[in-house]
């Protein structure tokens, strides 16, 4: 059992959620009270709500079911590790499905009003001045999902029991917003809504020592790096007459590099070149080969994923 | 024997990656790096290509 200091604890009832200020070095435990309950989760930088957790980046780095030892990342251009999953007694979370919404329950089930994760999140976030448009893609704790042979995401029943939990360690000050998923007519929470217990702990040295280092790169930009750092406060979009595009690395200029291949090298090339994609365009096929080789030999992480430094 | 000239079309970003790789000592120049890539890639993928050809 943990010897961590408890800072606060509460139970969120079915149909509700709670925004919690979780400071760097604190742990939020989301715990099953009865078992079988999905928790949707949003997360914002407490000092700049425009930095928020990004399921797309998170699933690219950690796969569709992030669990112990993985991070929740913020959206580009910030791309920082916001939270670390310190412990997960189940190991089945989801970053494939969006939050359920009123639209889903009206369109598919005919409900005029129904508990749904978007509206629950919005109501919980309203305590901190956020609007329904600020709710973002949810990290779905305890949600059991997969992808079928046709490429469609599916959800199924979960096997969580009373006392199962996920511990999220804050790597920056965040507003953490868990909610009891509102889906009682789907398999998500085994066709029933149950409460969830939230506990905030102070992490101890052993907890902090478990966190792998993540890169600090120039590309992780903050408003001080933005050409337009001011948050737009009105709703209509109007063209800025003073706008002058400054896209990086433009114009893209193509240079020819002539490569003389011996008959033996041509034979080698012809054996492996991707004619199925490039046809007779040997230049394109050789370029493909060059960068495919480079990926295989030098790329450290999954495509598009920031690598995580080993300790 | 006649050599075949293939004219690779690379943009400045692709060339930057190639040049950084060369700077690590992987190959002496751009042409040599492409040749190295061909030799290593072909060696690694020849078996796979043979399998695909047999399957067709």
Secondary-structure blueprint:
The complex is a heterodimer of chains A (311) and B (56).
Chain A: E1 5-12, E2 20-22, E3 26-32, E4 39-45, E5 48-52, H1 55-62, E6 71-73, E7 81-88, H2 102-109, H3 117-125, E8 139-141, E9 144-147, E10 153-156, E11 165-170, E12 174-180, E13 196-202, H4 205-209, E14 254-261, H5 263-272, H6 275-278, H7 282-298
Antiparallel strand pairs in A: 1-13, 2-12, 3-11, 3-13, 4-5, 4-8, 4-12, 6-7, 7-11, 9-10
Chain B: E1 4-11, H1 12-23, H2 30-55
- Sheet-strand content of chain A, in percent, reads 25-35%
Which structural class best describes the helix and strand composition of chain A? alpha+beta
SSE run of chain A = EEEEEHEEHHEEEEEEHEHHH
Percent helix of chain B: 55-70%
Low-pLDDT stretches of chain B are: none
> Biggest sheet of chain A, in brief?
6 strands, antiparallel
What is the largest interface, and how many residues per chain? A-B, 33 and 35 residues
Number of helices of chain B: 2
Total strand count of chain A, please?
14
Describe the protein:
The complex is a heterodimer of chains A (311) and B (56). Chain A is built from seven helices and 14 strands. Chain A is an alpha+beta fold. Chain A folds into two domains: 5-223, no CATH class; 245-296. In chain A, the strands form three sheets. Chain A has a six-stranded antiparallel β-sheet. In chain A, strands 2, 4, 5, 8 and 12 form a five-stranded antiparallel β-sheet that branches. The longest helix of chain B is centred in the last third of the chain and has 26 residues, at 30-55. Chain B contains two helices and one strand. Chain B is 68% helix and 14% strand. Chain B has 56 residues and is α+β, with helices and mostly antiparallel strands. Chain B has a domain at 28-56. The model of chain B has no long low-confidence stretch (mean pLDDT 92). The chains are: A alpha+beta (311), B alpha+beta (56).
């Amino acid at each position: 059992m943990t010897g961590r200091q408890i800072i606060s604890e509460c139970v969120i009832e079915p149909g509700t959620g709670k925004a919690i200020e979780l400071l760097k070095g604190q742990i939020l435990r989301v715990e099953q009270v009865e078992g079988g309950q999905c928790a949707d989760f949003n997360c914002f930088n407490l000092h700049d709500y425009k930095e928020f957790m990004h399921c797309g980046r998170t699933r690219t780095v950690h796969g569709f079911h992030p669990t112990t030892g993985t991070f929740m990342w913020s959206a580009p251009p910030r791309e920082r590790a916001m939270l670390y999953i310190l412990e997960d007694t189940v190991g089945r979370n989801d970053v494939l499905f969006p939050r359920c919404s009123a639209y889903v329950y009206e369109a598919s089930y005919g409900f005029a009003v129904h508990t749904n994760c978007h509206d629950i999140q919005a109501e919980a976030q309203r305590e901190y001045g956020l609007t329904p448009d600020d709710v973002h893609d949810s990290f779905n704790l305890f949600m059991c999902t997969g992808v079928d042979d046709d490429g469609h995401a599916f959800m199924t029943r979960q096997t969580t029991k009373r006392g199962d939990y996920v511990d999220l360690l804050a790597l920056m000050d965040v507003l953490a917003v868990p909610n009891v998923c509102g889906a009682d007519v789907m398999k998500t929470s085994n066709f029933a809504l149950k409460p969830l217990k939230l506990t905030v702990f102070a992490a101890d040295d052993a907890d902090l020592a478990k966190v792998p280092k993540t890169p600090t790169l120039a590309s992780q930009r903050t408003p001080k790096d933005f050409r337009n750092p001011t948050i737009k406060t009105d709703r209509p979009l109007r063209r800025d007459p003073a706008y002058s595009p400054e896209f990086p690395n433009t114009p893209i200029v193509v240079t020819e590099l002539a490569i003389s291949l011996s008959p033996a090298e041509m034979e080698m090339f012809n054996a492996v070149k991707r004619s199925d994609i490039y046809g007779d365009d040997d230049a394109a096929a050789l370029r493909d080969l060059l960068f495919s080789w480079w990926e295989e030999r030098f790329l450290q992480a999954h495509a598009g994923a920031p690598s995580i430094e080993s300790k | 024997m006649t050599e075949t000239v293939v004219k690779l079309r690379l943009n400045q970003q692709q060339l930057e990656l190639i040049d950084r790789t060369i700077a690590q000592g992987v190959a002496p120049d751009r042409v040599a790096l492409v040749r190295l890539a061909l030799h290593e890639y072909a060696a690694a993928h020849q078996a796979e290509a043979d399998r695909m050809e047999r399957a067709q």
